[in-house]
Structure formats: structure tokens, C-alpha cells
């Protein structure tokens, strides 16, 4: 192998070098895209039409189409060099956020259970109760992403803690979670009750959220508890949810949310 070919190989490996966890996620995305195309008799060719259909299809499930497309692009761009260009087309990104807004943030198509039912289920186990009411607080099993007990604070009628890192954090600086008191299923009081029970059992542990047996809760564990109370159409909440999600949670219609300037989509 001459030096030119060796340089080309080094460049190829550098471009395609990714972490093991990222590699697994990318492979999942590529597999999902290929399965979609084959099951719908569509070519793998990433045309704008195919990518838009894929985003529309995945938005009906608890999935992240943009993230999956990143994985598909990573593995298929050598075959389809224009994959990234098609994925970045204004037509495809506009489909994704509008479709997810319609499917995930619209309350009119969901039959919400009583708040107290969700928050007070298994009320004799504060760890289960609190985690069920705070779906974005789940840590993954790596120290940089574990929510620390030391970050939890209670001030007046508020409670707050810090998420050091999560998949919706593009700048790797974490997110501060602020909870306000509510008249029904008060999350501040629930968090206080959980913290008291946690400190009695595992006061010396660094992690804020700990299961009753001392292990850290996983996403699969949380899903099993959460979806035992509500349907799976309630999944997929974003840690970067803004005003539109808040107002939708209050039951306001899309037209009112748009009038408030919190929802730019016309979907």
C-alpha cells in the first residue's frame, strides 16, 4: 500500500470513528430506516419524499426520527453520498418538528388520566412516585450523566436540581430543572417526601434518584412503571420543551398557543 492510499485510509477511519455507545445508536437508526423502506417497498435512495415519509411514520411512535436519520446517514452515506444533503433539506427538517408538535404536544387527541392517579400510584413507595412524576430525571448508568443529590435544593414553594448531561443537551453544560408547587399532585412535596425517604436509606450515596433496593433506575425500569399507569402515546417528552408544551398541558388549543407566540408551526 503506497502512502497516498494509506493517507486515504487514515482519513476514512478518522471520519467514521465513533464511540461504542454512539455506534450502537447509529446502527439502530440505520436498521430502523432500512426496515421502514423494505416494509413499505421503497428504495433506500434517500430522496426528499422517502425521508419525509420516514419522519412522518416514526412520529407516530416513541422514536426520534432526526436522531435515527443521523445513524442511517452515517452507515449509508458511502452508498448515497448525497444522504446528508437530502437530510438537511428544508423540506425534511420542517416535516419533523411540525409532525412531532402535532403528535406529542396536542392534548385534544389524548384522554388524560387524573393527575392524582399518575402521581399517587404506589404512594407507599416515594422513589417510584417521584420518578413517575419526573420522566426527564432518569439518569443513565454513567457518572457524567448522574443527577447528584447535592444539586437538589428547596426554596420557598420551588424545588430544583441539575441534570449534568442528557441527549437533548447540545452544549454539554446540563439543564436546571425547576419545579413549582401545584394544588393537585404537588411535585415539590412529592420530591421532598422522596428526598427524606432516600436520605434515610442511602444518605451517603451521590446519586439523587435511587431505587428502593439501592440500584440506579434505568429507562426500561421507568418505562415499566410509567406505562403501567398511562398509555404509550404519552411518551417522547423533550427536555427542551418550551412554552408550547406548558400551555398544551394546561389544555389550551393550538390556535391560542399560536396567538401567544409560543408555537410558530402552522401544522
From TrEMBL:
Coiled coil: none
Alphabetical UniProt keywords: DNA recombination
InterPro entries hit by this protein: DNA_brk_join_enz, Integrase-like_cat_sf, Phage_Integrase-like_Recomb
GO molecular function: DNA binding
Gene3D superfamilies in the cross-refs: Intergrase catalytic core (1.10.443.10)
Biological process according to GO: DNA integration; DNA recombination
Descriptive protein name: Uncharacterized protein
Amino acid at each position: 500500500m503506497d502512502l497516498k492510499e494509506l493517507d486515504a485510509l487514515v482519513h476514512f477511519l478518522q471520519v467514521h470513528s465513533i464511540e461504542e455507545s454512539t455506534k450502537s445508536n447509529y446502527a439502530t437508526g440505520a436498521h430502523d430506516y432500512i426496515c421502514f423502506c423494505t416494509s413499505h417497498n421503497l428504495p433506500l435512495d434517500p430522496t426528499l419524499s422517502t425521508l419525509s415519509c420516514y419522519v412522518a411514520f416514526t412520529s407516530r411512535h416513541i422514536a426520534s426520527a432526526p436522531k435515527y436519520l443521523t445513524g442511517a446517514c452515517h452507515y449509508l452515506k458511502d452508498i448515497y453520498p448525497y444522504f446528508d444533503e437530502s437530510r438537511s433539506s428544508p423540506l425534511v427538517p420542517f416535516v419533523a418538528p411540525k409532525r412531532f408538535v402535532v403528535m406529542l404536544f396536542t392534548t385534544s387527541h389524548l384522554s388524560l388520566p387524573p393527575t392524582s392517579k399518575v402521581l399517587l400510584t404506589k404512594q407507599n413507595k416515594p422513589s417510584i412516585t417521584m420518578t413517575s412524576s419526573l420522566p426527564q430525571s432518569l439518569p443513565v448508568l454513567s457518572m457524567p450523566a448522574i443527577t447528584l443529590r447535592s444539586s437538589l435544593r428547596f426554596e420557598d414553594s420551588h424545588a430544583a436540581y441539575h441534570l449534568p448531561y442528557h441527549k437533548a443537551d447540545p452544549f454539554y453544560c446540563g439543564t436546571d430543572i425547576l419545579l413549582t408547587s401545584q394544588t393537585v399532585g404537588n411535585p415539590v412535596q412529592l420530591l421532598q417526601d422522596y428526598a427524606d425517604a432516600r436520605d434515610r436509606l442511602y444518605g451517603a450515596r451521590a446519586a439523587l434518584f435511587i431505587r428502593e433496593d439501592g440500584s440506579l433506575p434505568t429507562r426500561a425500569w421507568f418505562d415499566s412503571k410509567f406505562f403501567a399507569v398511562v398509555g404509550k402515546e404519552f411518551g417522547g417528552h423533550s427536555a427542551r420543551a418550551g412554552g408550547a408544551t406548558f400551555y398544551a398541558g394546561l389544555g389550551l388549543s393550538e390556535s391560542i398557543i399560536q396567538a401567544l407566540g409560543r408555537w410558530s408551526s402552522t401544522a
